[in-house]
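Re: [ENG-882] Designed sequences occasionally contain unexpected residues at chain ends

Forwarding the minimal case from QA. Structure tokens:
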């Protein structure tokens, strides 16, 4: 029993994405005795733009191979970014910058979250892509967060 507990703890540690800010939860989509398939929801907080959080959902393959991190998870995911308070785009913010990344399978595929700035619309665009190429292009998802208008923006 003790060995099973230690194996379970090590498996969970290996299956946890490396750089994700916080795992919010998961839902079982396919029950297996050796470890169920799930959809995992993660939150990524933008380290350079206060009050912006992105929520991403990822398919996670269960079973023994999935639990030890050698199964390839499907390149299926979704992204939604929200303002949790007033959003101001810092003047020195790069036009394009990687915000975060997580490993989806052992040395094979990663998901990369990149921030783009639309200066014309005063909006931040977040693009989540899979590094695994499917049918000639990576799977991707996009979400946008409008910056809060400054009080001087509406003055003539």
């Amino acid at each position: 029993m003790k060995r099973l507990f230690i194996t379970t703890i090590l498996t969970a540690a290996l299956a946890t994405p490396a750089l994700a800010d916080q795992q919010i939860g998961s839902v079982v989509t396919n029950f297996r005795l050796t470890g169920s398939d799930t959809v995992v929801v993660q939150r990524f907080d933008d380290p350079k733009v206060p009050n912006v959080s992105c929520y991403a959902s990822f398919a996670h393959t269960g079973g023994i191979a999935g639990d030890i991190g050698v199964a390839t998870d499907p390149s299926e995911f979704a992204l939604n970014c929200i303002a949790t308070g007033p959003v101001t785009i810092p003047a020195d913010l790069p036009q394009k910058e990687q915000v975060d990344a997580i490993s989806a399978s052992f040395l094979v595929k990663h998901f990369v979250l990149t921030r783009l700035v639309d200066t014309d619309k005063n909006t931040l665009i977040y693009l989540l892509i899979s590094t695994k190429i499917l049918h000639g292009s990576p799977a991707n998802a996009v979400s946008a967060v409008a910056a809060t208008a400054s009080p001087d923006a509406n003055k003539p």
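QA comment: On inspection the terminal residues look reasonable. The helical segments are 2-15, 63-67. Proposing we downgrade this to a documentation issue.
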